[in-house]
Every structure is written in C-alpha cells, then in structure tokens.
Recover the amino acids of this structure.
C-alpha cells in the first residue's frame, strides 16, 4: 500500500504531542515514586507500576481520539487491531526499573507501523528534555537538530550498547561481551533498550544489541536509526508475531559489520 504523506505527517505530529504529554505525566510520578506500588512480572528486574498503566492509558486515549481506526499495541494492555493499515506501538515507560530506583535513564517510546514497517519513531526523555523524532523519508532529529551518523565510528573507537534480560542465558550474554571486548570494543547498559537505540541514532553509541526484545521496546528506535543513516535487523511484525519478542540489533555504518558478526547475523 502507498503511504500518504498527509497521513504520515498528521500521525507524526500527534506522536510528538502524545510523547511529550505522556512524559509530563510520567515525570510527575517519577518525582513522587516513593509512593508507587510496584508489581513484579516474570523477572524480578521487570516491574510495573500505576505510572506505567496511567501513562499508557493517556497514550491510548489521545491516539484513539484522533485516529480511532488505527491499531494499538501497548506493553501493558496488549494489541487492539485497526482497519487503517496503521498500528501504534508504545512503551509508556521504557526503563521502569531505573524509573522506580530514581535513575533518569528512562523514556517514552512511540512508534507507528504501516505495512509492517516502522514509519514513525518518537522517543521522549523527560529527565533530560530530549525529544528524538523521525518519520520515513524525512530524517531523524533530536530537539529539532538533524541526526546523521558518522561512518568513522566503529566498535573499537566508540561505545556499544548491550541489553540483557531473563530471555537470554548468562552464558549467551557473556559470549556477546567477550566477543565485543576481544575486538577492542567496550559496552554500556542503561536499563532502557529504547533509550539506547535513540543513542545509536544520535551517534552516542555505535550500535545496540539485545538477544530478545519486544516490539514496544525497539520499533521507535529502529525508525530513528534508519532515518539517521544507520541499519537495523528487521523485527517480525506479521500477525501475532508482533506481540512476541525477537533479537534486536541496530548500528551506525561503521559498526554494522562487527556487530552483525557478534550477533551471528548473515
């Protein structure tokens, strides 16, 4: 299907608006986080609070007001099919563990899929007032400044982001770290995959690899990386596969070769 520019522009504008609004609500909860009731998911490090639920409700309601025919996938409430060909994929607070422990490295992630590909990606970082924003064919920006990746950055002269969770064994994560270090690289883990993908788009990281992530964690960041001149490993978006996890890998031009080898991607 052909993507209409007006439809893309209208949704891109709304994505920025709702990300900022969601960020304001989340920041209010962050500033009084000691009062939040925390629930544990499958992993003791994977938590959810009333903040996640309320922020997702804000995103869902604001989007439905404008585009009721669009699909919606939220981390906390699951998938609602749409009829327009567009599906919004959101993580109300990516990095909930840093959030509840008082660290600033968490964000709001809003992506829009069309024909199975991420055509809009917006990531808002309230604690730093940073808005990463991209739309297909229109480039990527950070607070209005154009992002364009430098192919001189490699795993040897820049930093790589690595993610880990209970879906990957300690041995598998250890092999990734060992392989990266043996190539002369170094790594960082912030606790928010979406934020680290935004950092790839901004050139702060040369790449990001996590053996298993969900769509709401990565699709906004994928759009940002591509529009900044980088590459990403396609995420399966057909039917129920959209709600399941998959390996996530994104890189700038200079880090792509090494990181593909580390991830075992042809």
């Amino acid at each position: 299907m052909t993507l209409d520019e007006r439809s893309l522009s209208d949704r891109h504008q709304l994505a920025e608006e709702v990300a900022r609004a969601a960020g304001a609500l989340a920041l209010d909860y962050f500033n009084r986080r000691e009062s939040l009731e925390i629930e544990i998911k499958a992993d003791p490090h994977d938590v959810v609070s009333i903040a996640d639920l309320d922020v997702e409700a804000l995103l869902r309601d604001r989007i439905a007001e404008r585009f009721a025919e669009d699909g919606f996938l939220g981390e906390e409430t699951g998938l609602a099919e749409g009829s327009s060909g567009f599906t919004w994929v959101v993580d109300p607070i990516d990095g909930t563990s840093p959030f509840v422990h008082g660290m600033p490295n968490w964000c709001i992630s809003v992506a829009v899929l069309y024909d199975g590909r991420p055509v809009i990606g917006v990531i808002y970082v309230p604690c730093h007032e940073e808005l990463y924003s991209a739309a297909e064919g229109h480039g990527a920006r950070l607070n209005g400044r154009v992002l364009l990746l430098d192919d001189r950055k490699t795993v040897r002269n820049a930093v790589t982001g690595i993610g880990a969770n209970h879906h990957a064994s300690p041995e598998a994560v250890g092999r990734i770290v060992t392989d990266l270090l043996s190539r002369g690289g170094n790594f960082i883990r912030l606790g928010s995959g979406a934020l680290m993908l935004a950092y790839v788009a901004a050139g702060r990281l040369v790449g990001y690899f996590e053996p298993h992530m969900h769509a709401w964690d990565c699709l906004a960041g994928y759009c940002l990386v591509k529009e900044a001149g980088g590459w990403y490993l396609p995420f399966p978006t057909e039917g129920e596969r959209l709600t399941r996890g998959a390996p996530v890998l994104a890189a700038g031009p200079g880090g792509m070769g090494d990181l593909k080898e580390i991830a075992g991607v042809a």
User: Anything to note?
Assistant: Helices lie at 5-31, 50-66, 96-100, 170-182, 193-201, 215-227, 256-263. The mean pLDDT is 93. The chain is about 35% helix and 25% strand.
